[in-house]
Amino acid sequence: MRFVDIIEKKKQKQILRKEEIEYWIQGLTEERIPDYQSAALLMAIVLNGMNQEETTILAKSMMKSGEQIDLSNISGMKVDKHSTGGVGDKTSLVLGPLVAACGLKFAKMSGRGLGHTGGTLDKLESIPGFQCFLTREQFVEQVEKIGLALVGQTGDLVPADKKLYALRDVTATVESIPLIASSIMSKKLAFGSDSILLDVKFGEGAFMKNIEDAKKLASSMIQIGKNLGRDTRAVLSEMEQPLGNTIGNALEVQEAVETLQGKGPKDLTELCLASAELMLLQGKIVSNKEEAREMLWEKIRSGQAFEKFCDMVEEQKGDVRAIRDLSLLPQAKQISEMKAERRGYISGIHSQKLGVLSMEIGAGREKKEDAVNHAVGLKLYKKYGDFVEKGEVLCSVYHDSPLETEWITRLQESFEYQEEKPEQKNMIEAIIED
Fold first, then answer.
1. Is 374 a catalytic residue?
2. What residues contact residue 289 under an 8 Å CB cut-off, 6+ apart?
């Protein structure tokens, strides 16, 4: 088999056979196929696409390129969740303890943030002493013991995806639904959970910019999961404004804790509850969404969901005192208030701009090697549809260094106003279960 013939075949918009896709991924992993040839095939896929069967084969081949985690020794239903990422997305910090308190085993590997979205590991590491990286044995033992672990991904899982993603990043081949779907699902499948819940975000602050592409991506990933024997469902959520009221690591941990205590912002609370409902149905803990919602609120009101988060922090060597007393989390040196320059209804909040602005003051990283300042970020007091008077506080900036005039101007420009109250939007646009 010649790899140049496989490139030519996809260039001519033909369907690749199982053997051809497996040959590519094996050759890529073993470094027998040079990067320039893989890059050529990636571009052909971006331009000419893949059907669902090809995409499933690609995901499975990538999954098998490295180690796979066996969770079969853990009792009960093991559930996993993936978000396609968005500004202020701290859902996993709430969802994991919530469903674990209901009896599911929430076993999740997460990543660090790059660019305008923050990663779950960065948020967790704002808790003093928290250890994100466990051995395989420690991970399995913790999930069995308390039903919950949020850890960093090991280097042995899906090496083909790491190689492909690095290539896609520098060859303008990132934006392809088959490539995105196979990348995400190969990692989820290699992890060994019984069911997978996908939070596919769309809008300015998300990777998928419109609902149509988000639906295509969700449907493709669901089919991959089901074709490979996993109960896979998806929530499609809007990301035209940040999720919740905070952007920045310690600030988001604080908001997650408040949400677990029933005091969180409405949008974050609703997304977590809707997602948890699906996970409880997937895990056969409940028979309908009404029963699920009642159980979830009981776990919040009783304090069991919050205590499960504390259990995880303690197991992973974090300082639980900083969760019970949030003032012990990292604190910024300065807090500056940004005030509205005019009166009116908030008609738009540019999520991506706010994410970039937060990154520039240290809350995120532009390059992989950049350090993160866990204390800095933004806290919003006004969201889409809220009325604001001129001079009223829009948000607080938590920062360590002086804010430049140009940065402040861009922050002000991230909020849009209008005289009439804007039409209400649904944050959860759709739930796809098949």
1. no
2. 277, 281
- The answer to the question of residue 277 being in a domain is yes
In a domain, 364, yes or no: yes
Residue 66 is assigned to a structural domain of this protein: no
Q: How many domains does the chain have?
A: 3
* Identified catalytic residue from 80, 122, 161, 231: 161
User: Cα angle at 411 between 410 and 416, to 5 degrees?
Assistant: 95
Write down which residue in 325, 355, 375 finishes a domain.
325
Verify that 194 and 298 share a domain, yes or no: yes
Q: Does the active-site annotation cover 187? A: yes
Q: How many Cβ atoms are within 10 Å of 159's Cβ, its own excluded?
A: 17
SS3 call for 363: coil
How much is the CA Rg of the chain, to the nearest whole Å? 22
Name the phi and psi angles at 109, rounded to 5.
-100, 135
Which residue of the set 183, 220, 351, 414 is catalytic? 183
Clarify whether 399 is annotated catalytic.
no
Q: What is the 3-state secondary structure (H, E, C) of 112-163?
A: CCECCECCHHHHHCCCCCCCCCCCHHHHHHHHHHHCEEEEECCCCECHHHHH
Distance, CA of 329 to chain centre: 22
CATH number at residue 14: 1.20.970.10
Q: Active site includes 116? A: no
The whole-model pTM stands at 0.91
Say which of 112, 116, 162, 168 is annotated catalytic: 168
Catalytic residue among 10, 60, 81, 82: 82
In order along its 434 residues, the chain shows pLDDT tens digits of: 899 999 999 999 999 999 999 999 999 999 999 999 999 999 999 999 999 999 999 999 999 999 888 888 899 999 999 988 788 999 999 999 999 999 999 999 887 655 555 688 999 999 999 999 998 889 999 999 999 999 987 667 899 998 998 899 889 998 899 999 999 999 999 988 999 999 999 987 777 888 999 999 999 999 999 999 999 999 999 888 999 999 999 999 999 999 999 999 999 999 999 999 999 999 999 999 999 999 999 999 999 999 999 999 999 999 999 999 999 999 999 999 999 999 999 999 999 899 999 999 999 887 767 788 999 999 999 999 999 999 999 999 999 999 999 999 999 999 999 999 999 888 899 898 87
Supply the range of the domain harboring residue 135.
78-158+187-325
Comparing CA positions, the residue from 79, 105, 83, 106 lying closest to residue 193 is 79
82 belongs to the catalytic site: yes
**How many Cα atoms within 13 Å fall on the side-chain side of residue 96?**
30
